[in-house]
Amino acid sequence: MSESQSAAALSSGKGHRDENFPVASYLIHPRHRPAILAFYRFARVADDVADHATADPAEKLRLLEDMRRTLAGETEGSSEAYALRCVLAERQLTPQHAFDLLEAFRRDVSKQRYSDWNDLMDYCRYSAMPVGRFVLDVHGESPSTWPASDTLCAALQVINHLQDCGKDYRELNRVYIPQDLLAGANLGVEALAGTHAPSALKSVIASLARRTSGLLAEAKPFSGQIRDFRLALEVGVIQRLAEDLVRRLQRHDPLSERVHHRPAEALSLACAATAAFVIRRPASRSVRVSMAASRQ
Questions:
Q1: Least C-beta-crowded within 10 Å: which of 145, 160, 259, 274?
Q2: How far is 263 from 269, CA to CA, in rounded Å?
């Protein structure tokens, strides 16, 4: 690969409609969607660079550094980073969330194993949490919502890892399932190479899904903390989709069974989540008004 190779040449061709969870869906107000999509395109390109199966690791790191330097205003080598830089400047938003995201992709290039749950959560601190924080910033939401957002985003990241655990190992030799859990079950990473998960591996995956379900339980109040109605609704939909997926991961083998939602399944869950949210949201507002009045 030549020194002048661009990140775009490593594109997977995936777009925001190919993701497991909604990205800048039509639930989001149109005035916010361009900024979120600019952040997504930046992240998509960086992810494609880090995940490319044949590119040299040194070249991957060079391309990610070019994205960082462009975002920092030191160069204009990356078109996606430049576009995001312009959006951030226009909206007077910090680039820190994007810088944090690049750290996760650098780790994807250089780190292929995670020792325990805390190590995995540290990775999520860079790979997932900045995304939620950026979306909240775009909507002008309070940083007090960040902890709940961080918890939900970490859960979504672990769900993605569990769904794709076989593919990640076979194609990238990357394993996000903590090594201490595999060792405790007398398993090596080679167990992820098969077309069916042995019972011990299914138990490990189910235990991680249960722990992720705990994260989702912690994140449950998040949508009620968001002022923007449309964003709160999207978060409610994402929460419902994630809750269904962790239940699937506790019952099914992601190496041999489909654990992703089909479009019709996702739509049905989204409609149910929307109905529940619309019923619940006015009540939560009236409760806040009553509480505020009682303090006066």
A1: 274
A2: 10
- 249/74 Cα distance (integer angstroms): 44
Listed residue (140, 179, 3, 217) closest to 187, CA to CA: 179
Number of residues written out for the chain: 296
Residues 273-292 as b or e (16 or more Cβ within 10 Å = b)? bbeebeeebeeeeeeeeeee
Residue 73: left if φ>0, alpha if ψ -120 to 50, beta else—which one?
Answer: left
The band of 279, judged by pLDDT with boundaries at 50, 70 and 90, is confident
Q: Rounded to an integer, what distance in angstroms lies between the CA atom of residue 126 and that of residue 146?
A: 14
Provide DSSP, 256-283.
TS--SPPHHHHHHHHHHHHHHHHHHHHH
- Asked if 237 and 270 count as a contact pair (C-beta separation under 8 A), the reply is yes
SS (H, E, C) 70-121: HHCCCCCCCHHHHHHHHHHHHHCCCCHHHHHHHHHHHHHHHCCCCCCHHHHH
Q: What's this model's pTM, rounded to 2 decimal places?
A: 0.87
Any idea which residue has 């939560």 for tokens? 284
Quick one: 239 exposed, middle or buried, by C-beta within 10 A (0-12, 13-18, 19+)?
buried
Tokens 């989001």 map to which residue?
28
- Written as six digits, the tokens of 194 are 């098969």
